[in-house]
Amino acid sequence: MKNIVVVLLLCLSFVTASCTQEGTKGQTGAVLGAAGGALVGQAIGRNTEATLIGVAVGTMLGYIVGNEMDKYDRQRLNNVYETGRSGQANTWNNPDTGNSYQVIPQPAYTPANSTQPCRKAEIQAVIDGQPQTTYTTACRDESGRWVLQNR
Predict the structure, then answer these.
(1) Beta-bridge partners for 85
(2) Which candidate, 71, 119, 63, 61, places its Cα nearest to that of 95?
(3) What phi and psi, each to the nearest 5 degrees, are found at residue 81?
(4) What are the pLDDT digits (tens) for 102-146?
């Protein structure tokens, strides 16, 4: 009976997480991994301990895989901020997600309150088949990476 309750709670958390738009790919991967790990753990061990071990391992692996997908797009965007020619479109397709991006960076500038350069960019993306356009600003941090600003 305990096993059924654990699996039902995991399924409920999976459904709840998949309905939110706020989770990252890493978080979504963790939820999917936890649900899959619970099912595999239960099938192999047929007890609560095996189910919980499956949840732990599945959560960790799912988070790692989901986060890697995010990393690919962040690396490409960082490259555009670093080397992209102002006003020219840079495009790519994420091979894992199928999402596509077009980024048009603007010339670099240095804000009055900083010594680090910043760049604005227009990002046109097709995510899960839905076109989206956003305007971003990224500034270089002390280690040389471009960091999106909350403005």
Answers:
(1) none
(2) 71
(3) -60, -35
(4) 999 999 999 998 899 999 999 898 888 889 898 989 999 888 888
SS3 92: strand
Give residue 9's identity as a one-letter amino acid code: L
- Classify burial at 29, counting beta carbons within 10 Å of its beta carbon; exposed 0-12, middle 13-18, buried 19 or more: buried
Whole-number Å distance between alpha carbons of 87 and 4: 57
Alpha-carbon distances, residue 25 vs 43, 86, 123 (angstroms): 27, 30, 19
- Is residue 57 scored above 90 in pLDDT? no
DSSP E strand boundaries for the chain = 90-93, 100-105, 118-127, 130-140, 146-148
SS3 93: strand
- This prediction has a pTM of 0.55
List, as own/partner pairs, every contact residues 116-125 make where C-beta atoms lie below 8 angstroms and the sequence separation is at least 24, other chains included: 116/140, 116/141, 116/142, 118/149, 119/81, 119/146, 121/80, 121/81, 121/84, 123/77, 125/99, 125/100, 125/101
The two tokens of residue 7 are 């699996």
Q: Distance between CA 81 and CA 19 in Å, rounded?
A: 32
